[in-house]
Write a structure and sequence with these properties.
- This protein folds into 2 domains: 125 residues, Rossmann fold (3-Layer(aba) Sandwich); 134 residues, Sandwich (Jelly Rolls), CATH 2.60.120.10.
- Helix content is 38%, strand content 27%.
- It is built from 9 helices and 14 strands.
């Protein structure tokens, strides 16, 4: 199947129940290369969570089938050999490389293994190719919030209120957004650019936890619980961030119970995904001993 033919099949028209307007849902097919069954199950769960009324992510079962996005285990030599053959048949495919040591200078989106739910969700937003050069600021902010896992279920009215209480921050490459143990008073929504999230070990070496981009959120846990940052964040490229301060966001939640409930549901879902992943990692470790 040609790449052009796949792209023609990626859009389907559906009708919103009870309305007389047609809404286009973008269907994004995802191929995973070089992952064990446990990782594929986790990826399938994340694709389900990431899907919304604008985009539907679907995991292909046949590794040789054409797809919109390929997620590749870059630490597996056999998987990389397969990818080098597979890519010849899908020249327009978006690529996410997963590695224990991500290559920050790669032309592809890179994430760290073992896979983390929120990290992969952000990479999917990056790979979707949704950014446009001339997007008006208000629309850009709304689109970024809708792509984020944290705010994906919020109503348009609630998102508009969040945008109204936020401010913009523009940073050049190599600038620190926050450091570990800093006071967690703000969270950041990435509008454009890429940032590295990392911690330092006891010897002072920088350990990268992941790379995030448009639609991903940084610092939300520290902002919500008021404690210090658990990691640091630094820009890898010129970046624009939407900054939401605790002093504005907490009163917003107090005044909007529906938004607070939506937020609790998302946080609970993310905790469930991470707990399931941890349980499988522990089970795997026990079996291999």
């Amino acid at each position: 199947m040609s790449s052009k033919h796949v792209q023609q099949q990626q859009w389907q028209a559906v009708w919103k129940e009870g309305r007389d307007i047609s809404v286009a849902i973008k269907v994004v097919t995802v191929n995973t290369i070089g992952f064990v069954d446990r990782e594929r199950r986790m990826i399938r769960n994340i694709l389900s969570v990431a899907s919304n009324n604008e985009v539907s992510y679907q995991l292909v079962e046949n590794p040789r089938a054409a797809a919109s996005v390929a997620i590749i285990n870059a630490d597996d030599a056999v998987a990389m050999q397969f990818w080098n053959e597979y890519r010849q048949d899908v020249p327009g495919i978006s690529v996410i490389l997963a590695s224990a040591v991500p290559a920050l200078e790669s032309d592809y989106i890179c994430i760290k293994r073992p896979l983390i739910a929120s990290q992969l969700h952000g990479a999917l937003a990056l790979s979707g190719g949704n950014a446009t050069a001339a997007t008006p600021p208000a629309q850009q902010k709304m689109a970024a919030l809708r792509r984020s896992l944290l705010f994906r279920n919020f109503s348009s009215a609630h998102l508009e209120k969040i945008i109204a209480l936020s401010r913009m921050l523009t940073l050049s490459a190599g600038q620190a957004v926050f450091s570990r143990a800093d006071a967690g008073e703000e969270m950041f929504v990435v509008l454009s650019g890429r940032l590295k999230v990392s911690v330092c070990d006891r010897e002072g070496h920088d350990i990268m936890l992941g790379v995030v981009g448009p639609g991903e959120i940084l610092g939300e846990i520290a902002m919500l619980d008021g404690l210090g940052r658990s990691a640091g964040a630094t820009t890898l490229a010129p970046s624009e961030l939407l900054v939401i301060h605790r002093r504005d966001f907490m009163p917003f939640l107090e005044q909007n119970s529906k938004a607070a409930i939506d937020l609790i549901r998302v946080l609970a879902l993310r905790l469930r995904l991470n707990t399931e992943q941890l349980a499988e990692l522990i089970a795997d470790s026990t079996i291999t001993r």
